[in-house]
Structure formats: C-alpha cells, structure tokens
Amino acid sequence: AAKRRINALKQLQVKCAHIEAKFYEEVHDLERKYAALYQPLFDKRREFITGDVE
Predict the structure, then answer these.
(1) How much is the pTM?
(2) Would you kindly state where each structural domain of the chain is located, as residue ranges?
C-alpha cells in the first residue's frame, strides 16, 4: 500500500514538472517578445548617448 502511494506521488511530481517546464517555456517566449519591443527604444537611447543624433 505504501509503495502504491509513493508511486502515485512520483507520478504527480512528474506532472508538476511538466507544468513547470511549460511555464518556463512561455516565460521565455514572453521575454523574447518584449525584448523585441524594447530593442528599438534601446537603439534610439544609444544614439542619443553616443551623440549620433541631437
């Protein structure tokens, strides 16, 4: 009976790990999306700092 419960807990842990992996995959996708949105602003800021534009 105890082995059965331990195996059930292990299966639950595997399911949790799969959900967590999906979470981090989606976080990574969001970071890439917003990095692309920020990049033009960072480029423009760099132009001001380096004196390329007034």
Answers:
(1) 0.71
(2) 23-54
